[in-house]
Amino acid sequence: MGTRYTIQELIVARAAKELRDREFVVIGQGIAMAAGVLARKTHAPNAVILTEAGLLGIDPFKVPLHIADPTCTRGFTYSCDMIDIFTTVLNQGYVDATFLGVGQIDRYGNMNSSYLGDPDAFTIRMTGAGGAPEFVGYAGRAILTMSGGTFVEKLDYFTSPGYLTGGNARYEAGMPAGSGPSVLITTRGVFKFDAVTKEMFLSELHPGVPLEAVRAEVPWDLKVADTLKTTPAPTGEELAILRSFAPDVVMGRKLQLEVVMQQVIKLLTQNAG
Amino acid sequence: MEKFMDADKRMTAREAVARFVRDGDSFVFANSLYCMPLALTHELIRQGKKNLMAFQQGGIEEIDQLLLGEVIDRLVIAYNFRSGGPRIVSPLDRALKEGRVVIEEMTNHTLLSMMKAGAMGYPFLPVLPGIRVTDVVRRRGFLGDQRFAEIRDPFTGAGMLVVKGYNPDFALIHVQRADRAGNGQLWGAMINSKWAALAAKKVILSCEEIVETGVIMSSPHLTIVPAHKVCAVVECPWGAHPSEVLGHYDYDFPFRALFVGSAANPDSARAWLDEWVHAPADRQAYIEHYGRRFGKKTLDAFRAKPFKSVPADYGSTFSLDWDEEGRSRTMGLTMAEFIAMLGEKGALIDGN
User: Fold this and answer.
1) In this predicted model, what pLDDT tens digit does every residue of B285-303 receive, in sequence order?
2) Binning pLDDT at 50, 70 and 90, where does residue B84 land?
């Protein structure tokens, strides 16, 4: 029997490999933060993590609850504000990459994080746009992960720009040359985007996942790389770092709710008089 | 903009909200995620304020609580946490479906740019134009065309996307410390605080502690909102609980989870609001209730350990023009020689 890992660990470890040393990366909470920190603790020690809360050069000691909490603010190099992050940092081209979790995505990497269902008669109101539209629009590239989201032919609501209708459409709409989603990592595999058409294709399958399982989740005729690779399993070192830094990310949201709620009740009752 | 010049603006949260908040007002949270003004937020609910319009960058629990309290009916927002995941129906979900609130979806950058334009007294500001293709710009909510517009760069002729400036009627802010006049000092994540506070016509400020003005004068770089913007100063320890305040306390995760769990169901949500907002008369009573309900030790576990910033040294020689022997450093003259010189040069005028 080889290494045993959770699906979140596989996704985070694979996402971390996308970040290069000395890059500026904008990060949100959860899987994204875990991936950024893992990269810094392994192959990219000089990567600079920033969050839209106005924090640059942070060094979180555990995975934060949100992008401005005290795990992010114990020692950082530049305290600015949210306007600065989007203008003097992002708009000036300093941001090499952004990590982003996906709710709904289409074949050209356009994303929805606002509503599931018709916005006027929705079934779920998601978190909303936050900083995603500008970060995906203007960062050097976007590294996407999806663990609870879906592939759709047409988005219910268009929150963040991928490659629009494909080809050069994104750049004709004014976004920086070369920018856009570079990779999407899901619970089944890894997708990349064709250099010319900008349509996503399957590039890697996670260990043990059959191709049909991926096709079943994608509502269009999915293109597949000529040589389909297998996603590398997380190493023992990566797992040790992740389990220490981000145990709540590693276990996934469903388990987290269950386990953490039990602990919440214990914490709130143990000292009650 | 009205200038608030009273030297001592200290009052209770109850007085501040009663005096400065009118039904139908618009307001902005001048903290987002971090250091949330939750004691002031609860006072809006306790006093039954109605039909307010809220601007908020990123909400955690405050938007849901205001909706449960039926305080706001219009919401301009970029992000609202769904801590319970997609399966939980949040108070925001219910309010939207039942038509009790209308929402305007913005991005963090464009929403804060609306505040920055308003703060600077400009009618509009340019924003990153790439998002013009998205539904955030294309779909219109209750603000209609009073959000985004397309103009031409007058210098190059290129197309630009701009947002309209807004000046909310008031801002709520919580900070670490302030003086009696309202010079408010905040550190940690700065997020939207400066621009949201400066955009508002007046600022209702709560703080962990009131300090002497001398403390402010030795650390003016920490002042995020100046006294002349502030109409009320509320000293309120634990005023941001269960969010965090650096140097004072961490976020209280179990308490937050308790709210998220309660908020999923209308009956338990109402019970939560009765217990934690309506029953306590003020924040002190809320904290005392917390102690009785969960034990004082539970709350004490969230108290911050110090992580001191190296103080900035604002020192200089502080020398007067006159040296220790009473001789001017710039002229080399004593006071008597100086006055004699003025006479000799004909610079002195005879009075009557």
Assistant:
1) 999 999 999 999 999 999 9
2) low
Dihedral angle sign, alpha carbons of residues A13, A18, A20, A25: negative
Gap from B81 CA to chain A (nearest CA, Å)? 6
Q: What is the mean pLDDT of residues B69-83?
A: 94
pTM of the model: 0.95
| A19-42 tens-digit pLDDT | 999 999 999 888 999 999 999 999
What separation in angstroms does the CA of A116 have from each of A271, B104, B133, B141, B284?
41, 16, 19, 17, 41
ipTM of the prediction? 0.95
Nearest CB to A68; choose among B33, B138, B253: B33
Q: Which tokens belong to B88?
A: 């939980």
Cα(A178)–Cα(B328) distance, rounded to whole angstroms? 65
Strand, helix or coil at B193?
Answer: helix
The whole-number pLDDT of residue A42 equals 97
Measured between beta carbons, the chain B residues lying within 8 angstroms of A81 are 190-195
- How many Å lie between the alpha carbon of B189 and the closest alpha carbon of chain A? 6
Q: ∠B5-B28-B17 over CA atoms, to 5°?
A: 60
Query: How many other CB atoms sit within 10 Å of the CB of residue A103?
Result: 24
A269 contact partners, CB below 8 Å, separation of at least 6: B294
Measured distance CA(A226)–CA(A211) in Å, rounded = 13
Residue A129 to residue B194, Cβ atoms within 8 A: no
Contacts of A253 in chain B (CB under 8 A): 85
Residues on chain B touching A127 (C-beta within 8 angstroms): 79-82
Q: Would you give the end-to-end CA distance of chain A in angstroms?
A: 49
Q: Distance (Å, rounded) from C-alpha A78 to C-alpha A92? A: 16
| Residue range A149-188, pLDDT digits in tens | 999 999 999 999 999 999 999 999 999 999 999 999 999 9
Of B79, B139, B251, the CB nearest to A127: B79
